[in-house]
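Lesson 9: reading folded outputs for more than one chain in a single document. The general rule is that every protein is listed as its sequence immediately followed by its structure tokens, and records are never interleaved. Here is the first one.
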Amino acid sequence: MSLFGFVLVMVSLVLGLGVTHLLQGISLVVRHRRTMKVDWVPLTWAATLFLLVASNWWALWDFRDLHWSFPAFFFVMVEPAVLYLAMTLLLPVDAAEQNPESFEAVRLPFMSLLILFQIMTSWDGWLLGTEAFWNPLRWVQAVLIAIFGLSAASPRRGVQKVTAIAALLLVVFGTFVLRFLPGAF
């Protein structure tokens, strides 16, 4: 096994645990949809997180030729750990924890984690020496940080609806149009 494969195993485990938590939360919502009030805003954020996990894992391929050191591994390992924490805050996996105000109760720490994650993933390639300081995806990443910040700053329901949809659309655009087209970077 290569050193890259060794590093990728641990990162993949953490990302997989996060996806498992997301799917458990969605399963809970589906299972109890008649007895609990379903809020589509956290479900929209769950879809965004799912795409962020997939694109983060796929983007790790950019590090395949990196000269790995423990600090580089630790930095790359913190990214999925932050994303995992955000996923565990977003959707409860116990019906007793679910209530209409549950998203509002975790909105600020959830968005703070997304801001941290986005800052880290925006500049990890540059910090580790695998990509240029600026590329076509940077403006999308900067706008995502602004959207997460706006959602963190405003408790208004209308702002939460708009930011959830805007983030999902921007992640879809950034992932499928800018990042993973052949020869994108």
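And here is the second record, again sequence then tokens.
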Amino acid sequence: MTSNPENRRDAVLRDFYAAINAKNWQRATGFLAPACRWHVLANDVVDSVLLLGVDAVRAWFETALGSVPTRQTIAKIVSSDGASAVFTEPAADRPCDSSTSGWIDIFRFEGDLIAEHVSLRSG
């Protein structure tokens, strides 16, 4: 990776979303700081949740996202200081998938690890 912090964060986020789309929860949570905070606002896919720590996030990924048959495609990443906003668009795995929600995910970093996340539906 390059030495530019924003470019490193962009690469981490792209790898993170690839792991989420592959439903590789071990790999995905490898990008999280041990004491991370994970916030998701209620939407058409999951209920509102606040999770603390990597193990709690991994367990939530497995139960809440394990059966969700859609992927998120990154449309744009905007980074500033120690945070990044990721705008995503849905990409259905099967033609019958009904969720058409896009997302805005805000990530705060500590070094190259995700320390905090807030997610909200954009569409």
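What the second record shows: The beta strands are 32-40, 49-52, 70-80, 83-92, 103-110, 113-121.
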